[in-house]
UniProtKB/TrEMBL annotation:
UniProtKB keywords: Transferase
Lineage, highest ranks first: Bacteria, Pseudomonadati, Pseudomonadota, Alphaproteobacteria, Hyphomicrobiales
Protein species of origin: Sinorhizobium mexicanum
Family matches, as InterPro entries: Acyl_CoA_acyltransferase, BioF2-like_GNAT_dom
GO molecular function: transferase activity
Protein name from the UniProt record: GNAT family N-acetyltransferase
Amino acid sequence: MTNACFTLTSLNDPLPSDRVSTQCSTAQDAEKTTVSIHTDMGAVETEWRVLDENGQNSLHQSFDWCAAWQKTHESQTLFVRGARGRRTLFILPLEIDRGRLFRTARLIGSDHSNLNTGLFADEDAMPPTELVSVLTCGVKRQLRGFADIVTLDKTPETWRGKVHPLAALPALQNADSSFQLPLLGNIERTLAQLNAKRRRRKMRISERRLAALGGYDYVVARETSEARALLDTFFQQKAARFEAHGLPDVFQDTDTRAFFHQLAKSGQAADGKLLELNALRLKDEHEGRVLAIAGLSRKGDHVICQFGSIDEEVAANSSPGELLFYRIIERLCSEGVALFDFGIGDQPYKRSWCTIETSLRDIVLPVTLRGHLAANLHRAAMLTKRMIKANKASYAFVQRLRQRRQSPLKPAAAAEEH
């Protein structure tokens, strides 16, 4: 392959804006903090892109990520901006989910995000007590005509050594954590944080098994057409795995697939930052067969693995997913990446790779009287989910029930695995 980042040969070869606003008085500054709601992304694009430059703000709330979501979904979106004078202090990009009983405002694309931070200026821009006042006074007042409840889920209390602004708000712990591995400049120093000997031995076993099949290429999609093909293969591999385990396919929805295709398309124009497709491809007898795929997003020196899949029909015993991560991490060590993020969800392979576990929090803000009832129900559901996942027997029982109820004709709305 001409774009191969690493190649293993066979054994025989050498190795706008409608806007409403309110003001909240502050004790520390004569200027007032103004909270406004915009329906047009373009109205706040300039300020938004300035906040994007803050490395503490998640890629999932970046302008380009949210623009891709808006382009592929028909949900109502609102953009909440907090400012003092001409300085923008924060932006919360929200979408409105209209349920049968309640209207929920949540961060755009939350179902497919691994880390939510909103967008904030530097940590000293607004004292925590003032931020709480602004969010509970200004934001809730402005959203009253649009939503009953605001949920800001998967937010960190601390992120990369700094307390996050939203940590000042009360929250419940999310049922899942996210997992990260610091990259230390080269693969040797990085693996030294782990069981390096075991990790290299496992990699050598995987490569021997693949060499017996003719070898492999580790490739990164550089062309839009190749990214599209790999993404379609990922959807196929993931659908097969979900079906085999009786789980709903969270990538089956047409809008969801269009969203990831839009990210892949935009990602190529933005130097692969939004979504970069990495894969292992077999050579020789199985020429072109894709064994494993991982979708990565990069902001600054932080890379998030958004999703992954493997071909479970060919060479599954070679641990292609683990080998792909090895090659990805090896490459990123030389490209200035300091933190590789395996994303949310507690799985054995993540714990085997990672030295950092980040607890995440779910924030619930009732906006209306009906929203107080919705908030209580939401908190109860989160607590129940956390209790079930903390008990292996209960969690296994729930998974069995889900498998029995799952119908290929009517997939459920969400799944634990992604």
